[in-house]
Amino acid sequence: MHGPASPGWLLVALCAATGAYCLLRMRSPVEEQRRTAGGEALMGFGMAAMAIPAAVVTPPRWAWLVCTAVFGVAALRALGTARGTRHHLHHLMGTVAMVYMAAVMTAAPAHHVHGGTGVPVLTGALLLYFTGYVLRSGVRLLPLAVASGPVASGPPAGSVGWGDRPELSQACRLSMGIAMLAMLITL
User: What's 146's DSSP letter?
Assistant: First the structure.
Protein backbone atom coordinates (compact mmCIF):
# COMPACT_ATOMS: atom_id res chain seq x y z
CA MET A 1 0.00 0.00 0.00
CA HIS A 2 1.05 3.59 -0.38
CA GLY A 3 1.94 5.78 2.53
CA PRO A 4 4.75 6.38 5.05
CA ALA A 5 6.96 3.39 5.87
CA SER A 6 6.73 3.46 9.70
CA PRO A 7 2.92 3.21 9.95
CA GLY A 8 3.04 0.68 7.14
CA TRP A 9 5.33 -1.60 9.12
CA LEU A 10 3.14 -1.21 12.21
CA LEU A 11 0.17 -2.27 10.09
CA VAL A 12 2.14 -5.26 8.81
CA ALA A 13 3.00 -6.27 12.39
CA LEU A 14 -0.60 -5.87 13.59
CA CYS A 15 -2.02 -7.93 10.72
CA ALA A 16 0.65 -10.64 11.02
CA ALA A 17 0.12 -10.92 14.79
CA THR A 18 -3.63 -11.17 14.26
CA GLY A 19 -3.12 -13.84 11.61
CA ALA A 20 -0.82 -15.78 13.96
CA TYR A 21 -3.40 -15.65 16.77
CA CYS A 22 -6.06 -16.87 14.34
CA LEU A 23 -3.81 -19.82 13.45
CA LEU A 24 -3.66 -20.67 17.15
CA ARG A 25 -7.45 -20.45 17.32
CA MET A 26 -7.61 -23.15 14.64
CA ARG A 27 -6.65 -25.65 17.37
CA SER A 28 -10.04 -25.14 19.01
CA PRO A 29 -12.19 -28.21 19.67
CA VAL A 30 -15.18 -26.29 18.24
CA GLU A 31 -15.45 -26.91 14.48
CA GLU A 32 -17.11 -23.58 13.64
CA GLN A 33 -14.39 -21.76 15.60
CA ARG A 34 -11.68 -23.55 13.59
CA ARG A 35 -13.34 -22.77 10.25
CA THR A 36 -13.82 -19.09 11.11
CA ALA A 37 -10.27 -18.82 12.48
CA GLY A 38 -8.86 -20.20 9.22
CA GLY A 39 -10.59 -17.53 7.16
CA GLU A 40 -9.47 -14.82 9.56
CA ALA A 41 -5.86 -16.09 9.46
CA LEU A 42 -5.93 -15.85 5.67
CA MET A 43 -7.23 -12.28 5.94
CA GLY A 44 -4.63 -11.33 8.55
CA PHE A 45 -1.66 -12.65 6.63
CA GLY A 46 -3.01 -11.36 3.31
CA MET A 47 -3.47 -7.90 4.79
CA ALA A 48 0.06 -8.05 6.24
CA ALA A 49 1.47 -8.88 2.83
CA MET A 50 -0.53 -6.14 1.12
CA ALA A 51 0.43 -3.57 3.74
CA ILE A 52 4.18 -3.83 3.17
CA PRO A 53 5.20 -0.25 2.35
CA ALA A 54 5.64 0.30 -1.41
CA ALA A 55 8.69 2.46 -0.70
CA VAL A 56 10.46 -0.59 0.72
CA VAL A 57 9.28 -3.37 -1.59
CA THR A 58 7.28 -2.88 -4.75
CA PRO A 59 5.67 -6.22 -5.56
CA PRO A 60 5.53 -7.20 -9.22
CA ARG A 61 2.20 -7.02 -11.02
CA TRP A 62 1.79 -10.80 -10.89
CA ALA A 63 1.81 -10.69 -7.06
CA TRP A 64 -1.28 -8.48 -7.12
CA LEU A 65 -2.89 -10.85 -9.62
CA VAL A 66 -2.22 -13.76 -7.24
CA CYS A 67 -3.78 -11.77 -4.37
CA THR A 68 -6.80 -11.00 -6.53
CA ALA A 69 -7.21 -14.68 -7.40
CA VAL A 70 -6.70 -15.98 -3.84
CA PHE A 71 -9.16 -13.53 -2.32
CA GLY A 72 -11.54 -13.99 -5.23
CA VAL A 73 -11.73 -17.70 -4.36
CA ALA A 74 -12.12 -16.79 -0.68
CA ALA A 75 -14.93 -14.37 -1.62
CA LEU A 76 -16.74 -17.10 -3.56
CA ARG A 77 -16.38 -19.43 -0.58
CA ALA A 78 -17.64 -16.70 1.76
CA LEU A 79 -20.56 -16.07 -0.59
CA GLY A 80 -21.56 -19.71 -0.20
CA THR A 81 -21.63 -19.41 3.61
CA ALA A 82 -23.00 -15.85 3.80
CA ARG A 83 -26.56 -17.10 4.09
CA GLY A 84 -25.80 -18.00 7.69
CA THR A 85 -24.83 -15.35 10.18
CA ARG A 86 -23.89 -11.71 10.16
CA HIS A 87 -20.29 -12.75 10.80
CA HIS A 88 -20.23 -14.72 7.52
CA LEU A 89 -21.47 -11.59 5.74
CA HIS A 90 -18.58 -9.68 7.27
CA HIS A 91 -16.15 -12.27 5.90
CA LEU A 92 -17.70 -11.72 2.48
CA MET A 93 -17.24 -7.95 2.79
CA GLY A 94 -13.63 -8.41 3.90
CA THR A 95 -12.75 -10.68 1.01
CA VAL A 96 -14.48 -8.38 -1.47
CA ALA A 97 -12.46 -5.46 -0.07
CA MET A 98 -9.25 -7.46 -0.47
CA VAL A 99 -10.14 -8.38 -4.07
CA TYR A 100 -10.91 -4.73 -4.79
CA MET A 101 -7.66 -3.44 -3.28
CA ALA A 102 -5.57 -6.08 -5.06
CA ALA A 103 -7.32 -5.34 -8.36
CA VAL A 104 -6.65 -1.60 -7.96
CA MET A 105 -3.00 -2.32 -7.22
CA THR A 106 -2.83 -4.64 -10.24
CA ALA A 107 -4.01 -1.79 -12.44
CA ALA A 108 -1.44 0.71 -11.12
CA PRO A 109 0.87 -0.84 -8.50
CA ALA A 110 3.55 1.83 -8.26
CA HIS A 111 1.82 5.21 -8.43
CA HIS A 112 -1.90 4.80 -7.92
CA VAL A 113 -3.96 7.96 -7.99
CA HIS A 114 -7.69 8.20 -8.40
CA GLY A 115 -8.86 9.55 -11.74
CA GLY A 116 -11.12 12.24 -10.29
CA THR A 117 -10.93 14.59 -7.38
CA GLY A 118 -13.09 12.50 -5.05
CA VAL A 119 -13.12 9.03 -3.55
CA PRO A 120 -14.36 6.25 -5.87
CA VAL A 121 -17.82 4.97 -4.97
CA LEU A 122 -16.72 1.44 -4.04
CA THR A 123 -13.88 2.76 -1.88
CA GLY A 124 -16.32 5.09 -0.13
CA ALA A 125 -18.84 2.31 0.43
CA LEU A 126 -16.18 0.03 1.88
CA LEU A 127 -14.89 2.85 4.10
CA LEU A 128 -18.43 3.41 5.43
CA TYR A 129 -18.97 -0.29 6.04
CA PHE A 130 -15.67 -0.83 7.86
CA THR A 131 -16.09 2.37 9.89
CA GLY A 132 -19.47 1.09 11.09
CA TYR A 133 -18.01 -2.34 11.76
CA VAL A 134 -15.12 -0.93 13.79
CA LEU A 135 -17.43 1.28 15.87
CA ARG A 136 -19.87 -1.59 16.48
CA SER A 137 -17.03 -3.99 17.37
CA GLY A 138 -15.44 -1.48 19.71
CA VAL A 139 -18.72 -0.98 21.56
CA ARG A 140 -19.16 -4.74 21.88
CA LEU A 141 -15.81 -4.94 23.69
CA LEU A 142 -16.79 -2.40 26.32
CA PRO A 143 -17.51 -4.02 29.69
CA LEU A 144 -21.11 -3.98 30.83
CA ALA A 145 -21.95 -2.54 34.24
CA VAL A 146 -22.91 -5.27 36.68
CA ALA A 147 -25.76 -4.15 38.91
CA SER A 148 -26.04 -7.35 40.96
CA GLY A 149 -22.98 -6.89 43.14
CA PRO A 150 -19.24 -7.36 43.17
CA VAL A 151 -17.51 -9.13 40.34
CA ALA A 152 -15.85 -12.42 41.21
CA SER A 153 -12.12 -12.49 40.64
CA GLY A 154 -10.48 -15.03 38.34
CA PRO A 155 -11.93 -17.02 35.50
CA PRO A 156 -15.28 -18.71 35.99
CA ALA A 157 -15.33 -22.44 36.66
CA GLY A 158 -15.26 -24.48 33.47
CA SER A 159 -14.01 -21.53 31.41
CA VAL A 160 -12.80 -21.97 27.85
CA GLY A 161 -9.16 -21.85 26.78
CA TRP A 162 -7.57 -18.54 25.84
CA GLY A 163 -7.83 -19.42 22.15
CA ASP A 164 -11.61 -19.82 22.40
CA ARG A 165 -12.35 -16.65 24.33
CA PRO A 166 -14.93 -14.60 22.43
CA GLU A 167 -13.53 -11.25 23.55
CA LEU A 168 -10.10 -12.11 22.11
CA SER A 169 -11.68 -13.15 18.82
CA GLN A 170 -13.65 -9.90 18.78
CA ALA A 171 -10.49 -7.90 19.53
CA CYS A 172 -8.78 -9.57 16.57
CA ARG A 173 -11.70 -8.74 14.30
CA LEU A 174 -11.62 -5.16 15.55
CA SER A 175 -7.90 -4.84 14.83
CA MET A 176 -8.37 -6.27 11.32
CA GLY A 177 -11.26 -3.86 10.75
CA ILE A 178 -9.07 -0.93 11.77
CA ALA A 179 -6.29 -2.22 9.52
CA MET A 180 -8.73 -2.53 6.62
CA LEU A 181 -9.76 1.10 7.16
CA ALA A 182 -6.12 2.19 7.13
CA MET A 183 -5.48 0.25 3.93
CA LEU A 184 -8.56 1.63 2.20
CA ILE A 185 -7.64 5.18 3.17
CA THR A 186 -4.17 4.83 1.64
CA LEU A 187 -5.58 3.26 -1.51
Answer: P
CA angle 20–26–29, rounded 5-degree value:
145
| Residue segments in the chain with a per-residue pLDDT below the cut of 70 | 1-4, 82-87, 108-118, 144-164
Q: What is the pLDDT of residue 160?
A: 59
Question: What angle do helix axes 31-50 and 166-186 make, rounded to 10 degrees?
Answer: 30
Domain positions in the chain are 5-110+118-142+163-186
Q: What is the pLDDT of residue 20?
A: 92
SS (H, E, C) 6-39: HHHHHHHHHHHHHHHHHHHHCCCCCHHHHHHHHH
Phi-psi region at 62: left, alpha or beta (left = phi > 0; alpha = psi -120 to 50): alpha
The most distant pair of C-alpha atoms in the chain lies apart, rounded to whole Å, by 60
